Amino acid sequence: MSSRPATLPPQDNATTALYRAALGPVGASYYLRVFGRFDEAGLPGPAWNTMAACFTLGWLIYRRLWGAAFSYAVLLAGLAAALWFQVGPWMDWSDQARWAAAAALAAALWLLPGFYANVLLHGELRRRMTEAVREVATVQQARERLAAQASGPALLGLLVFMYLVLASAAAGWWWQQSRGRPLPVTALIAPPAAAPVVTAVAAAEVPPPVAPPAEVAPPATPPTPPAVSAVETAAVEPPPGPPPGPLSAPPPAAVAEPATDEPIRPRIRGHGVAVGMFADASNAQRVEARLRDAGLPVLSDPVESSRGTLTRVRVGPFADKAAADAAARQIRGLGLEARVYGP
Length: 343
Known about the structure:
By secondary structure, the protein is α+β, with helices and mostly antiparallel strands. Helices cover about 55% and strands about 10% of the residues. It is built from 13 helices and four strands. It has a four-stranded antiparallel beta sheet. The termini are far apart. Mean pLDDT is about 75; it is low at about 1-10, about 180-205, about 215-220, about 225-240 and about 245-265.
């Protein structure tokens, strides 16, 4: 009689041992439960894996799924290059469409590995187990072969360290870029308004209204004035001089001066790109320097607001919208905001 326990068939015990050897010491109990359900059903199905969803590339490398890891890395590199160099059909989409596409892509990159990573790993481990059993004579030798191929804590520690380095680098880059990011004011979204300039120009062109001359009564026989002394007559009568002429409007230069001390900024004709409104003048100067180094025509002027004097930075003007769109893509490539406006 055999001394093997009767709770599980011999083949199930051997299969479980091979699974455990192929999985390695990390997470074996979780995967054994999932793979047991797969084998009972005869067909693997969706099963949530948090580590595969949140750290997909690292999980694929740790489980030695090299083909899937290479494909996933190429996909991420292509997306990063498209965003960095501002290429792709989505550059002509609206902001709402871009955000919707980005949300859908992020959900796909998170949900698909989360639900189907176990299916991929189950199929790969079954292939490895079959090859190991065919190439050796006993199950124990197959287990030793699979255990030698499995990943251990050393590779897991290296992957965790790499993720920490990448996260620190990304946080540092984001912080460096945010130092020169403009304030999120309303003027950044809409094209710059030129209403005060138009008002000042109109006021300079239109002369002020002239009061109508007083109505002159028809000549009539004046009443006999009372007798006054010579001193009173000299005090009342105005000194002799030329007769008053018709009222004339003051010269335009007298009314063209603005009522306040705010300088009149000329209106820029043509298309342009609004980069941002800065409360700190030093930040505005750094952004202007970056734009000029990139060979872009920079326009800078102060704007009064409820938060004090802001510095508005624009690029332009351009003859058509195509040139403004090209400049906007170049500005976004520098890590700055860019909003195209028309004449």
